[in-house]
Amino acid sequence: MKKAFALLAALMAACLVLTGCGGDQAKSSGSGASSSSGAKVLKVGATAVPHAEILEIIKPALQKEGIELNIIEFSDYVQPNLALNDKELDANFFQHAPYLENFISEHKDCKIANAAGIHIEPMGIYSRKIKDIKELKDGASIAVPNDPTNEGRALLLLEKAGVLKLKAGVAEKATIQDIAENPKNIKFQEVEAAQVPRTLEDVDAAVINTNYAMQVDLVPTKDALFIEDSTSPYVNIIAVRQGDEKRPEIEALIKALKSDKVKEFITEKYKGAVVPAF
Domain limits at 79? Predict the structure, then answer.
């Protein structure tokens, strides 16, 4: 099981590489293409685990709708958006909304939209010393990741858990300096994300990414004191070109991904490392 979750580590790194979007010229477009059998071909870019694995499950359902799902795997976080913008793909499935928003802010020519949320790889609050988040005492210590993406995410989770209150409007860009209210005088230890689990014996609680939690045999849905849910902005999404949200093939793709079959697959396959968000 550890092997499978080790692969998730590469998926959850927030690697924001700055490259320019391609021009508007369409390359080998998947939009509206048909296979030799007459089925509509839908090209979806995805990273291998868990996104491509989830897409494989819905191929038969889409085939019944006259849609041939062509999954194109990527090993980075930049090319799937560039390929989608350049019409080499009809959709992609690898990122959460904050990453897409940041990508678009840095790539002004990219016209990509969030079509639907599918699953979350949840961040959680863990402890070896308390059994309930309400047991945190005055002056308790909490370890959080120190990189910008994960620290903001951790602070949002702590706010939702009632531990602190952030300044208005900072959202996922929050840092320790953006804490407006800290009623229990929590002391925060900023640690490299991969090292946060190692602090569990020394702090009262720690906010840990799923992939790193699993590496120390913590199951988010069982062991976390508090965990992200489907309302989190970090739900992984289906992204499409702006204006394609209501394309029949895209709507069929989303319907298939939000099926009971996919929910059961995610629950059984990933054992809490990936959680349905529908």
Answer: 2-121+232-276
pLDDT digits (tens, 9 = 90+) for 36-64: 667 899 999 999 999 999 999 999 999 99
Same domain, 72 and 90: yes
The residue from 210, 227, 244 where one domain ends is: 227
Q: What is the pLDDT of residues 204-228, one digit of tens each?
A: 999 999 888 988 989 898 999 999 9
Q: HEC string of the chain?
A: CHHHHHHHHHHHCCCCCCCCCCCCCCCCCCCCCECCCCCEEEEEEEEHHHHHHHHHHCHHHHHHCCEEEEEEEECCCCHHHHHHHCCCCCEEEEEEHHHHHHHHHHCCCCCEEEEEEEEECCCEEECCCCCCHHHCCCCCEEEEECCHHHHHHHHHHHHHCCCCEECCCCHHHCCHHHEEECCCCCEEEEECHHHHHHHCCCCCEEEECHHHHHHCCCCHHHHCCEECCCCCCCCEEEEEECCCCCCHHHHHHHHHHCCHHHHHHHHHHHCCCCEECC
Domain at 34, CATH number: 3.40.190.10
